[in-house]
């Protein structure tokens, strides 16, 4: 089967961090493939604007659900999962895109900041995978796409907790790839270099040139294209680097 067959049509896609630069681009690209969308972010007004934007240019009948949620709140997270399951019955494609990034020395990093970063970047994806993969395994079809970072493979000064969380997400992805593969559930870890988003502005503090960063639409199109294959081929890990690193 080729990507042109559009195996994604009518699939239910759950996207965290949907109002961020990359999350927004992913939501738009999956909408173009006629997927139903469950979008979550922290700002309800930004989610509403995104829903309207998608509805304005998509002429197909797709279901777009938006729920504002602070994923760091455990009870709110489990409530969100229940709403998504009650709404769509099951999630076919889970995209863990929400994340936090800070530039601080180990000396200036507090335990609270460490816990918050690990929680949002690693624990939340674990919980969502644990809950949504149950139906994927039962249905013998599913995709789990974890958005990591080039920091999952490398490191930079003053980014210790971020790098730790993304190394952890890569390790989680590698293990679950082998665990869920027999059930036709694909686990793919996508690790882009710096992207032109608000989070990317924080990366500038490391002395990097924002103009050399990757466009979020480029990453989103690449992810969706990869997501469109349903045969015997799979990209377990995808690294997307910048052409020019300064």
Give an account of the 3D structure.
The protein has seven helices and seven strands. With 246 residues, it is an alpha/beta fold. A seven-stranded parallel β-sheet has the order 3-2-1-4-5-6-7, sandwiched between helices. Strand 5 (142-147), helix 5 and strand 6 (185-192) form a beta-alpha-beta unit. Helix 1 packs across helix 7 (216-227). The longest helix is centred in the middle third of the chain and has 29 residues, at 111-139. It is globular and about 50 Å long. The model has no long low-confidence stretch (mean pLDDT 93).
- Structural class per helix/strand content? alpha/beta
Shape: globular
Q: How would you spell out the order of helices and strands?
A: EHEHEHEHEHEHHE
Radius of gyration: 17 Å
- Give the end-to-end Cα distance, rounded to a whole number of Å: 40 Å
Strand percentage lies at 15-25%
What does the largest sheet look like?
7 strands, parallel
Helix content: 40-55%
What is the residue-mean pLDDT, rounded to a whole number? Answer: 93
Question: Unreliable segments (pLDDT under 50, ≥5 consecutive)?
Answer: none
Give a count of the beta strands, DSSP E runs of length 2 or more: 7
Query: How many DSSP H or I helices?
Result: 7
Biggest sheet, strands in spatial order?
A: 3-2-1-4-5-6-7
């Amino acid at each position: 089967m080729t990507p042109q067959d559009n195996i994604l049509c009518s699939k239910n896609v759950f996207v965290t961090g949907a109002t961020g630069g990359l999350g927004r681009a992913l939501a738009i690209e999956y909408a173009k493939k006629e997927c139903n969308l469950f979008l979550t972010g922290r700002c309800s007004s930004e989610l509403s604007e995104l829903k309207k934007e998608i509805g304005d240019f998509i002429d197909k009948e797709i279901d777009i659900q938006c729920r504002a949620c602070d994923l760091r709140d455990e009870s709110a997270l489990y409530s969100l999962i229940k709403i998504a399951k009650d709404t769509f019955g099951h999630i076919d494609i889970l995209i863990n895109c929400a994340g936090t990034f800070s530039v601080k020395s180990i000396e200036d990093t507090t335990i609270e900041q460490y816990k918050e970063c690990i929680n949002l970047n690693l624990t939340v994806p674990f919980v969502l995978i644990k809950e949504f993969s149950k139906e994927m395994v039962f249905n013998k079809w599913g995709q789990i796409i974890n958005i990591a970072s080039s920091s999952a493979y490398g490191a930079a000064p003053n980014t210790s907790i971020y790098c730790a969380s993304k190394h952890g997400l890569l390790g989680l992805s590698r293990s679950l790839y082998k665990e869920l593969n027999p059930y036709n559930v694909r686990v793919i870890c996508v690790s882009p270099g710096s992207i032109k988003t608000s989070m990317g502005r924080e990366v500038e503090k490391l002395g990097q040139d924002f103009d050399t960063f990757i466009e979020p639409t480029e990453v989103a199109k690449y992810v969706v294209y990869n997501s469109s294959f349903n045969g015997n081929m799979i990209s377990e890990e995808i690294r997307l680097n910048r052409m020019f690193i300064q």
